[in-house]
Design brief:
The protein contains nine helices and six strands, in the order E-H-H-H-H-H-E-H-E-H-H-E-H-E-E. With 203 residues, it is α/β, with parallel strands linked by helices. The protein folds into two domains: 127 residues, Rossmann fold (3-Layer(aba) Sandwich); 70 residues, DNA polymerase, domain 1 (Orthogonal Bundle), CATH 1.10.150. A six-stranded parallel β-sheet has the order 3-2-1-4-5-6, sandwiched between helices. The mean pLDDT is 96.
């Protein structure tokens, strides 16, 4: 039986909604630039840095680009909004169904364990493995984020299905490693295998 791993933020939980609300409160029209900056910072990282630092750097860069003064309070606001991102309803239902069928499930997340503790409160039992960049020392899309995560889980790449809404962060690097991949289609990206809702996934 396949082991199913997931990206968390943006795939199982709606971080875009929670982050966007905080960003638009700070400064209207800043959301798109922020997400672009966050991805570029993560992609260019050479050594591990806490995800809270990345969020702060992306926010500072975004506000600087639109000539808005950065305040330390904004950083706390953004981190709180991020960690309290809500699960999509189909995510919870889909995970319950997968666990009922006996599948082993896991998370590979570009974040810190302290954030996941908040985000996963009440649903920790739906996951057998939880691995973060804090554990691996690498951020997706670096392929080492995947190889190290699966080493920590003690699973073989050929036994895994990885599910994500993001080709650029997850599906492309995982696929390059020979991992079977599925796009959970939250944002309209094209991928060879995709589902519209997690409860529709048939491993």
């Amino acid at each position: 039986m396949k082991i199913i791993t997931f990206d968390l933020y943006g795939t199982l939980v709606d971080w875009r909604e929670s982050i966007s609300k905080a960003l638009e409160f700070i400064c209207k029209g800043s959301t798109r630039k922020f997400f672009e900056n966050e991805f570029n910072i993560v992609k260019e990282l050479k050594t591990y840095a806490p995800y809270s630092t990345i969020l702060s750097q992306a926010l500072k860069k975004t506000l600087n680009e639109i000539n808005v003064e950065f305040r330390e309070e904004y950083e706390r606001l953004l981190v709180t909004a991020f960690s309290k991102s809500q699960f999509y309803p189909d995510s919870i239902l889909g995970l319950i169904l997968l666990k009922k069928k006996g599948y082993i499930t896991g998370i590979i997340s570009n974040t810190e364990k302290r954030f996941l503790k908040i985000t996963l409160a009440g649903v920790e039992d739906l996951f057998d493995h939880i691995v973060t960049a804090e554990d691996t020392g690498f951020y997706k899309p670096n392929r080492k984020a995947f190889t190290r995560a699966y080493e920590i889980m003690g699973v073989d790449l050929k036994d895994v299905i990885h599910v994500s809404a993001y080709p650029q962060y997850d599906l492309e690097p995982a696929s390059e490693l020979g991992v079977e991949t599925v796009c959970l289609n939250r944002y309209g990206y094209s991928w060879k295998r995709s589902v519209q809702r997690l409860d529709m996934l048939e491993p």
